[in-house]
Amino acid sequence: MTETDSNAYDVVVLGAGPVGENVADRTRAAGLTTAVVENELVGGECSYWACMPSKALLRPVIARADARRVPGLRHLVQGPLDAPAVLAHRDDHTAHWQDDGQAGWLDGIGADLYRGHGRLAGPRTVTVTGSDGTVRTLTARYAVAVCTGSRARLPGLPGLADVRPWTSREATSAEAVPGRLIVVGGGVVATEMATAWQALGSRVTMLVRGKGLLARMEPFAGELVAEALTEAGAEIRTGTSVRSVRRENGAVVAVTDGGDRIEADEILFATGRAPRTDDIGLDTVGLEPGDWLPVDDSLRVTGTDWLYAVGDVNQRALLTHQGKYQARIAGAAIAARASGATALEAGPWGAHTATADHAAVPQVVFTDPEAAAVGLSLAEAEQAGHRVRAVDVEFSSVAGAGLYADGYRGRARMVVDLEDEVLRGVTFVGPGVGELIHSATVAVAGQVPVGRLWHAVPSYPTVSEVWLRLLEAYRDS
């Protein structure tokens, strides 16, 4: 290795995914010199192996499903999807795994991009090892922000590496449709990829260790998604774990804890995430490599006054939009501290406080039907000690839903705090409900009283009239 130069900046950002890009955007907007270090593609996991490719795969699937529910149109969309065209659509939305555009965006905001592996080398110091072995040293006057994200976590099954299993990366970037696919897991990645590949022509078998799908949402969400996947042809086995896996004559053979043998062309493990912190020099600043990084509400790492951990690495909310929100908070906090501010807006909902991480995290699962939620589920609210009541309505009571699709199936729930008469959480399940969730997010984050929501009149006849049905059910029960 040859050290070539050393450069000083106000801020150094490790990781150029959406989170790192947003930290850099905010610190540059505040006039702070900023370096960004990336060892893969600028744009990160979301752009190339997660949000964008998965939704590009799923959009034709959901559009066809919606069309099949519309009279006068359903007979035109009864054939199979054009899988090569769907995969090409996916490739277009990942820019064919080229990052020129996003690297150009960083240059446009005035941030300096360093390509290579970044590691902490003591307080406020980062070394960058390039592909040619050269090492550059970057020093930060005010802050280093770790925005390195997370990776798929694989179970410790003997010989698993020899099987060449899919993780979320392979599932979103595969070049061909496998004839048979085993999906291990029941969370968001598992359900979305089962939905996509089943519709593209795979015969999908889901092996779910728990009692059902989407365990972190209201129970009815997973139930409705499981029902639709089963109707589409997928097989779902709950209460099932994989005991062993191997390849025989090119095929994957998985053996369950019950002794069943299942063969497939590929196997996807969607069994959780681990932080990308194992090789970034945490030991040089007294932290444990491979650990999640605990932070305060300004995203500063506990026990430090210069190190920030933003996005997945802090384990607060492993969602791209939430990481970008954290990045805006962290960027503002870094800028305020750099300007000499002695006190930040540290109260709830302040400019330097990531309050939404605790109270108003929204998420959409792009299955058919979609599942969308924000805030606390009923169980979570009760566990937190709130005195709450759940109010449920079926979308069959909403005129706009019947116009959206024949036989529209879905359910909505709002969790009402009976002390303050505000919403602690909202969940929607049904076709197209992802577009409803921001209204719920505003209600939860804004702590809008139920009495005031009466005066937010939903347009008729739209699916959003479900809000009126929920409020009527609360009033009348």
From TrEMBL:
Disulfide bonds join 46-51. Keywords: FAD, Flavoprotein, NAD, Nucleotide-binding. GO terms for biological process: 2-oxoglutarate metabolic process. Its cofactor is FAD. GO terms for molecular function: dihydrolipoyl dehydrogenase (NADH) activity; flavin adenine dinucleotide binding. SUPFAM superfamilies: FAD/NAD(P)-binding domain, FAD/NAD-linked reductases, dimerisation (C-terminal) domain. Residues 361-467 form the Pyridine nucleotide-disulphide oxidoreductase dimerisation domain. It comes from the Bacteria. Signal peptide: none annotated. NAD(+) binds at residues 185-192, 272. Binds 1 FAD per subunit. Residues 9-321 form the FAD/NAD(P)-binding domain. FAD binds at residues 55, 118, 148-150, 312. Belongs to the class-I pyridine nucleotide-disulfide oxidoreductase family. This is Oxidoreductase.
